[in-house]
Design a protein that fits this description.
Elements lengths: L2 H22 L9 E5 L40 H8 L14 H4 L26 H19 L2 H9 L2 E5 L2 H13 L7 H21 L4 E5 L8 H7 L9 H24 L4 E5 L13 E5 L23 E3 L7 H15 L7 H6 L2
Parallel strand pairs: 1-2, 2-3, 3-4, 5-6
Helix pairs in contact: 2-10, 4-5, 7-9
This protein binds 2-acetamido-2-deoxy-beta-D-glucopyranose (4 copies).
């Protein structure tokens, strides 16, 4: 038997062990780590000790979450929590604000309510963590990961196997462009604004890639013209239950985002970016029947639930929790749709998975 045959036998044996382990280890997540960037749709407590008006660590937020209010912007789990569950994690991904060394090897949630892609977005709300700062926080976490794993190259290997989800842009529209657009005080057309925001996003996503991300789900914007805050501010369009001018404005962002994703995939080696939607075109909402009114009583000032007020009791029948945010029931539906879109990031053939070691 030649030396090289020995190596082959040995290699096959390792493969055998690897595949056996894969089948016998139960409860392992589909990927080793999950990093989350975004706004209030994913924030799980990062804002609560900051000087911002965009924080909701008070009842009735969290009424359906074990332990009550945590800073999540609805009644229970948010979309990031549910996607983490679908990926097989047995604990939610920890907020950057207090993630321990043990936590960060499984990923970190950097989400911050009120934040956006443009640096000025969210300034209105005080000290929120915009995408640029979330990336800086990630770079801090990466150096901690490298120290924990003993070297930068092992850390790089680890980080390349994680899934990254990025959902930004809602506030660039809701709190920045749309108010100006509706009052016609903005110098930008919808296409000009979308290209400005996407140009910035492009640089930021590139920075995430440079930090070692290789499997990235980037979320499209939903129909922002259908949320209670928009309806209250501008009124539904004729023949629609939504503000169609706002929906149309947001379409430019999604159009350019698709082009950006294609560009990143063609230009960044070994990277997979996936354009991820969290709503389906069929608009079927299961048992959710109330599609336009918030479940809790909202403050006219900021659209958040009035502190201490009693929310609706049939929360699973509502799409919206407050003037901006979906209920846990709605988040369950959108998480499943998003998870299906994300599947190219973790449903790769076995041979690729082995080869990547
Ligand atoms: C970390 O933050 C979360 C959310 O803000 C909170 O529920 C949890 O108790 C905190 N844990 C520690 C150890 O501070
Ligand atoms: C918090 O922010 C407000 C408004 O931005 C500012 O006036 C106030 O001084 C800040 N408070 C602290 C403790 O930094
Ligand atoms: C709708 O509600 C029924 C009765 O509570 C339940 O059995 C069913 O699973 C629900 N459907 C969805 C899509 O959640
Ligand atoms: C939706 O909820 C609001 C507030 O709770 C209620 O007034 C309204 O009748 C509901 N609409 C539908 C269609 O259920």
């Amino acid at each position: 038997m030649t030396h090289s045959n020995n190596i082959n036998v040995c290699f096959l044996f390792l493969l055998f062990i690897a595949s056996t382990l894969q089948t016998i280890v139960v409860g392992e997540p589909k990927v080793p780590c999950f990093f989350i960037f975004g706004d209030s749709l994913v924030d799980n407590g990062n804002n609560i000790n900051r000087n911002t008006t965009t924080k909701v660590n008070y009842f009735p937020y969290g009424i359906d979450f074990p332990g009550g209010p945590t800073g999540r912007f609805n009644n229970g789990r948010n979309i990031a929590d549910i996607i983490a569950e679908l990926l097989g994690f047995d604990k939610y991904i920890a907020p950057f604000a207090n993630a321990t060394n043990q936590d960060i090897l499984r990923g970190v949630n950097y989400g911050s309510g009120g934040s956006g892609i443009l640096e000025e977005t969210g300034h209105l709300f005080g000290d929120v963590i915009n995408f640029k700062e979330q990336l800086s926080n990630h770079e801090v976490v990466i150096s901690r990961v490298a120290r924990l794993l003993g070297s930068e190259s092992v850390a790089k290997q680890h980080l390349s196997r994680c899934i990254y989800s990025v959902g930004m842009g809602n506030n660039d529209y809701l709190a920045n462009y749309l108010p100006q657009y509706h009052s016609k005080t903005t110098p930008y057309t919808p296409r000009q604004f979308a290209s400005l925001v996407i140009a910035q996003y492009s640089k930021q996503l590139r920075r995430l890639y440079d930090a070692g991300a290789r499997k990235v789900a980037v979320f499209a914007l939903g129909k922002l013209g259908c949320i209670p805050q928009q309806l209250a501010a501008y009124g539904a369009s004729d023949g629609s239950s939504c503000v169609e001018t706002s929906n149309n404005v947001v379409k430019s962002f999604n159009e350019y985002l698709k082009i950006l994703i294609h560009y990143l995939n063609s230009n960044l080696a070994d990277a997979k970016f996936v354009y991820t939607q969290d709503t389906s075109d069929s608009e079927s909402y299961g048992n959710i029947s109330n599609l336009s009114e918030p479940c809790c009583g909202v403050s006219a000032e900021d659209g958040q639930c009035v502190a201490g007020s009693a929310p609706c009791s049939n929360r699973d029948a509502y799409l919206f929790w407050d003037a901006f945010h979906p209920t846990e029931a709605a988040s369950l539906l959108s998480a499943k749709i998003a998870y299906d879109h994300m599947s190219p990031l973790f449903a790769e053939p076995e041979s690729d998975a082995v080869a990547s070691y």
